Amino acid sequence: MTEVVVVDSPDSASALAAELILSKVRTKPALRLGVATGATPVSLYRQMAVLAKQFGIDLGELQAYALDEYVGLEPGSPQSFRHFLEEHFIEVLGLDPNCLVVPSGDVATIATAGDHFEKAILDTGGIDCQILGIGSNGHIGFNEPGSSLGSRTRVKTLTENTRRDNGAYFSQPEDVPVHCISQGIGTILEARSLVMLAFGDKKAEAVASAVEGPISASCPASAIQLHPHATVILDEGAASRLEQLRYYKFVWENKPDWQSWRLS
After folding, report:
1. Which CATH architecture does the domain made up of 3-259 adopt?
2. pLDDT per residue over 136-164, tens digit each?
3. In this protein, which residues make up the domain named Glucosamine/galactosamine-6-phosphate isomerase (predicted)?
């Protein structure tokens, strides 16, 4: 069953997720971490940096794998997800940039980029923990509604809704690329554990569909219900449409084994 944790604010959710991930690093210093982009995980990465310093956790062996990348942006583009992760993840945590693997959005090699990225994951033993956000239409990574639940890393066409949501990072909405390369849902589900974060009322409907709705390609994030070790950490706004909200809060507050990873 998917673990659902509801806290009072995005900052509290990010701090809790940071503790969960750092507890895994304590156990396995060379943790292979799947990293997400967008506004949601920025606070998580900052909290990881603060807590790692506070508790003396060495992140020097950490390896990171991005969920996705735009197709066709110029190398070094400030709108690329590689640039985003270098700024908000690598620099914040003080990591070696070479620890980050990003699927290539180079048009010249795009035909083989998905297979190349899948091999990079496989060759290092697979992803231990995958960080996820969720789109307002239920997408994870760039797996838009209709994506196969068994899909692998491949090129996808972005919906207008997703391009509009990402328009804030570009000077003009029409500059948002139409295509991306994204880990597939099948790829994501092979990670040994999943940690999904969602904040705010605008994500509430998608979260409810992902956590309590039927497992369906219409809501790609619903595939997390198939995973044996998925944790969803929400603020109260994102949790507001959950029918079993009281149950989730009760279980979290009364099952100390769920909190065995808290840092001390």
Report:
1. 3-Layer(aba) Sandwich (3.40)
2. 999 999 999 999 999 999 999 988 888 88
3. 13-226
